[in-house]
Every structure is written in structure tokens, then in C-alpha cells.
Amino acid sequence: MSDVEPGAETSGEKLLVVDDDPFIARLLEIELAAAGYQVRVANDGQQAMDQVGQDPPDLVITDVMMPHVDGFELTRSLRQDPRTATISVIILTARGLSADKLEGFAIGADDYIVKPFDTPELLARVRGVLRRKREMKDESPLTGLPGNNRVQDEIEGRVTAGEEFALLLVDVDRFKAFNDHYGFPRGDTVIQELAQMMQDVLEGTGGDEGFVGHLGGDDFVVVVGSSAAALVADTIVQRFDASVPGYYDDEDLARGWIEVLNRRGEPQRYEPISLSIGVASTQRRTFAHFAEVMAIATEMKNFTKTTPGSSWAIDRRGT
Fold it and tell me: Is 70 exceeded by the pLDDT of residue 208?
């Protein structure tokens, strides 16, 4: 029987349970579904990664000891991919040693529960992790910038008011390879300095109506008046390119590339990180909602990725 706190509510968040023990997996599925969550089950880490790629959940609850890909490796993979880095992870395992818990937290787990578990405690931990996730969407813990929810509110407000604006979607190219090669601390430094750099650029060129948001990972949004978009985009690119040499070791910089194993376990060379910025503007078109603005900006960002080095592109098509 499920034991849900009186008055406890869920928002129907999507959960993925990963356990090679069918009894435990089914038990978790029943208890969590009864608490109001949308629950899917995977039998090992590889199957979990496949499911995450098809439909990312809000939270993964994973066992550690599994064949093929274990829970620690699954958590590392989720954290290293910008597309899945914000998915919450609870590690559920029979290994209760302090060293195991420390390893779990070190690789990015949000919580760690030891089997056998108490169902009310499990549900309380799940609610706590998901609550923190919702709160983090309002502000990035790494940069302190507004997160997804506030970014969407900002754009929706401008669209509704009929304001003239431009949205710059900023992405760091080859950032995952950089992170894999140098580690998360240096990668975090790049993200934090880029965030500060964009705020400094806005103070100098974007006027009082500028806005910077962090969507997570290496993805940012900058909003300025449409007439300032080109200047802001160009200034961000120039300043970022000037800072890039300082992020690399001398020998890597002299060589012009770093070598990292790709997903197939093969060594692959990656050139230094750069920026791709796609710009959606109201100068020649109107937008009906946030998703439309993001779609145009994403299309232009993907176009800039086809050119080498840092670049930016503005959508100049009419409505």
C-alpha cells in the first residue's frame, strides 16, 4: 500500500526506474504511480539511456549494481551530456558504505537511498528532489542567472506586450569534449565567465532592457532591443574568442586540438571551443508565443554551427 502524506501533491512528473531486479522495479513502479507520478521502467543502464534519449524524465531512480551499464556510469553519462545534465538522479542501492555514497554524490547524484527502503521515506525523498528541481528552474545554481521558467516568462511578457526585441540563443560548441578532457571545475569556470561576460556586454551595449538567462549546461539566452542585436552578438563572440586561449593547457593550445574518446570509445580530435549564436528578431516578423521565438533562434543557431569558429546569424525573413 502507498503511504502518501496528507495533502501531498505531484505535478505528474515523469520518473524512470532503473533496476535489474524485476520485483524491486515493479514495486517502485506501483508505489510511485499510486503517488501520482508517470513511471517507466528500464532493466539496466543502457536501456535507461535509450529511454532518456527518446523521452527525458524529470527524475531517474537507479540501482547501482546492474549488468552492461551500472548506476554510477549511468549518472556520469547523464551529467556529462548537456541535454540530460539537469535530470535529477536518486541512487538506490544495497551498498551503504560512506565511500559509495560519496562517490554517488561526487558524480552528481541528487540523493542516495540504501535498500531495504521505507516507502514513505522514498516518496518524501522523491518529492524533495523534484521540489529542488522546480526551484532550480527559476535560477541557475551555477551562474545565478534566471532559469528556464523565468526565461519563458520574460519572452512571453514581451510577446504579449507587442514589444520590439531580439532573442540571442547562445551555445558553446564542443563543450562536452572540453569537459571530458579537463574536468567539470574548468568547464564550470568557462560557463561562469561566459555568463558574466554577457552581462558585461549588455551593460555596455544593450541598454536597460537587456536580459540574460541560463537554460542549463552551456545554453544561454540573451534578450535585447532588436536594433542592438547585431552589436551585442558580435561583441559577445569577440570577447569569448579572446578568452578561449586561457582555458587550454599550453601544449593543447599549440597543437590546436584536444583528443577525447567519442561514444564508440574511439579517440577523436576536437578544436577549441567556440560560440554559435542564433538570433530571432521582431524587426521583420511578429511572434505568437515563446516556442515560436525559440524555434527560429534554434534554427539560426544550428545554421551557424555549419561554419568553423565562433559565429552568429540573425533571421531576416519576414512573417
Answer: no
